[in-house]
Design brief:
Elements lengths: L2 H17 L6 E2 L2 E2 L21 E3 L4 H11 L3 E5 L8 E6 H9 L15 E2 L4 E2 L4 H11 L3 E5 L5 E6 H11 L1 H14 L4
Parallel strand pairs: 3-4, 7-8
Antiparallel strand pairs: 1-2, 4-5, 5-6, 8-9
Length: 188
């Protein structure tokens, strides 16, 4: 086993030992295992941050700077750039690559309305994690806006948010997987 792999293996094993005595990770019948009921939980249990909001007339440069500053891959566009109005568009890092860079366009003079995806598919805040995963899988989306019953933005769910939630919900299973896989193969 290579030194880096060995160190990572031992670190993962130590982290697993840290969870050994925590009752949270054990159910009444032993260790927790993945349960499909988890997928029926509402998307509101996922880790979330307030969405970055802009109006249709805001510049692409402003949106990209906000995305860089907040380490986000998406901004939502609302009627007036506030959370008090409906979501009218979404602008992602993929739009930067495919609609601006690939097209040789100048982001300094482009309004978001020229390159955003208008009327994006949205999830209601009462919908489930399973519904979010289905929408992402079928639609090929990395980010999906979550709105309230009036269509006002609540947050954006990303593939990364779902993965983070699953890792935090099942650390033992995920840490064990890495350790088991490392011992079954050679090389990196």
């Amino acid at each position: 086993m290579a030194t880096g792999t060995r160190d990572r293996f031992h670190r993962d094993r130590r982290e697993l030992e840290d969870y050994k005595d925590e009752a949270y990770f054990d159910g009444p019948n032993g260790p927790r295992v993945f349960d499909s009921r988890l997928l029926r939980e509402p998307v509101t249990i996922l880790p979330a941050r307030k969405p970055l909001l802009f109006s249709r007339s805001d510049s692409v440069t402003e949106a990209v700077r906000a995305m860089q500053g907040e380490h986000r891959g998406v901004v939502l566009v609302t009627e007036d750039g506030t959370p008090a109005t409906r979501v009218t568009g979404i602008f992602t890092e993929r739009d930067v690559l495919f609609r601006i860079v690939d097209g040789g366009r100048n982001p300094a003079v482009l309004p978001l309305s020229a390159v955003m995806t208008p009327d994006p598919e949205c999830l209601q805040d009462r919908q489930t994690i399973a519904e979010a995963l289905r929408m992402m899988s079928v639609g090929g989306f990395r980010h999906v806006p979550v709105v309230d019953e009036r269509g006002m933005p609540v947050f954006v769910v990303s593939v990364r948010d779902v993965v983070q939630f699953l890792v935090e919900s099942f650390p033992r299973e995920i840490l064990n997987l890495g350790a088991d896989r490392q011992s079954e193969r050679e090389g990196g």
